[in-house]
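Board notes, transcribed. Complex of a protein with pyridoxal-5'-phosphate.
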Amino acid sequence: MEYTHEQLIEIDDKYGAHNYKPLDVVISKGKGVWVWDVAGNKYMDMLSSYSALNHGHCNPKIIEKIKEQLDKLTLTSRAFRNDKLPLFLKKVCEVTGMEMALPMNTGAEAVETAIKAARKWGYKVKGIPLNKAEIIVASNNFHGRTTTIISFSTEEQYKDGFGPLTPGFKIIPYQDADAIKKIVSKNTAAVMLEPIQGEGGIIVPPHGYLKKVKQICKENNVLFILDEIQTGLGRTGKLFAWEWDGAKPDVIILGKALGGGIYPVSVVASSREILGVFKPGDHGSTFGGNPIGAVAAIAALDYILEENLPERANKLGGHFIGKLRTLKSKVIKEIRGKGLLIGMELYEPARLYAEQIKEKGILCKETHDLVLRFAPPLIITKEELDWAFERVKTVFSE
Ligand SMILES: *Cc1c(COP(=O)(O)O)cnc(C)c1O
């Protein structure tokens, strides 16, 4: 039996926990930048699953590799080795310029992994007294939803009712390097930041900020960790957002688009000194490093490099931001972003506009109450962006 739009929403709401408030579009098919709902309506996806779909929906090159692997081997766990994981690790290290990598599945798991690595490094290498390690993070951050990660969120709702929280984190204002300098201590193991805050509303720090933070970290023997789960892999117009500031981190965290929009794959990449602190039994994941994920990630990375998606995001992002800035509307407060990670801050609830833009055939979503995020797949064409602009324009002139 075929279910209707209304029936599917009813079943969803009846049987699913209500931890999301999705737009009421029920998607059943996707290709490139386009998706179709169960009634056959076509929409452009301008959210890309929060940048997990940099490669577009159902990218045929990545699907082909995964299909091939599906018939061969799907899972070994790390109790045994498999023939794809080593190649994935090598590729990640080459692409990030790191020496070692540790594979996980979701972004939050990789962030947890980076936190564990930093703490252990703090005790074993830096010599911080046991259980005294501190990690400095920024206000307005988003690093995921585990109990430890929400412990250092400044978003009250993320924490409300989920305590007791994990100690050991110091929160300083984002974009303020001096605040880090003031608070850093001999017990500081790491500073962890997003190069651009994505969920926080597409907050682009001033040029030089990351470089300053990196310098402070270096001077104080503190690890500089960048969460590039959303900003990495071409989204901001460089392969990694840190490149804009020439501030290569000691530890980089990747996820989202690493799985080509098909399979959850995340990774922490760093130096031998840092990831070398993990000994057998210290940490793990049943699915982390599985051959399907490994093949997906290799194909995803190859595709980004072969198709030069960062350069494409840079050019097209500049083009689209330029167009958005020509919109004359009292509702628009600011348009900001880098590459194809674009935020439009409004004076009114962004949700209302996301709903109206949906009626024009474009799916985008509010982040925080007042910011609309435009982050289409990086394979989008200039013609498709211009098509989108004309529709967005009608909404802001109505
Ligand atoms: C999405 C995101 C995460 C969490 O990733 P999940 O796969 O949802 O766990 C962490 N950090 C940043 C910057 C993100 O954008």
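Residues 50, 106-108, 111, 142-144, 194, 198-199, 227, 229-230, 255-256 surround pyridoxal-5'-phosphate (CB under 6 Å). The two ends are 41 Å apart (CA to CA).
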